[in-house]
Design a protein that fits this description.
single chain, alpha+beta, S16 Ribosomal Protein, Chain: A, 5-stranded mixed sheet, 2 helices, 5 strands, 38% strand, flat
């Protein structure tokens, strides 16, 4: 089974927020998920997301691919040391 860590859209029109989920690649954006691993709210200033890094690392070790948007959130959570 090909698994991907990506965002699903939640909320009403003009009041959008997202959940970070683990899902089968073939399922639709807002379709069936395997596990919920965080959230992202672009309207909030400052700390506008939360991720369960231990679960994300678990899924990555088991072959899950990460979408570009979720990867940018992970990088914001753990900046790379120079």
């Amino acid at each position: 089974m090909a698994v991907k860590i990506r965002l699903t859209r939640t909320g009403a029109n003009k009041d959008i927020s997202y959940r970070c989920v683990v899902a089968d690649m073939r399922s639709p954006r807002d379709g069936k998920i395997i596990e919920n691993v965080g959230w992202y709210d672009p309207k909030v200033k400052g700390e506008n997301f939360s991720l369960k890094m231990d679960r994300i690392e678990y899924w990555r070790k088991h072959g899950a691919q990460v979408s570009e948007t979720v990867l940018s959130l992970i990088r914001r959570r753990r900046p790379v040391a120079k």
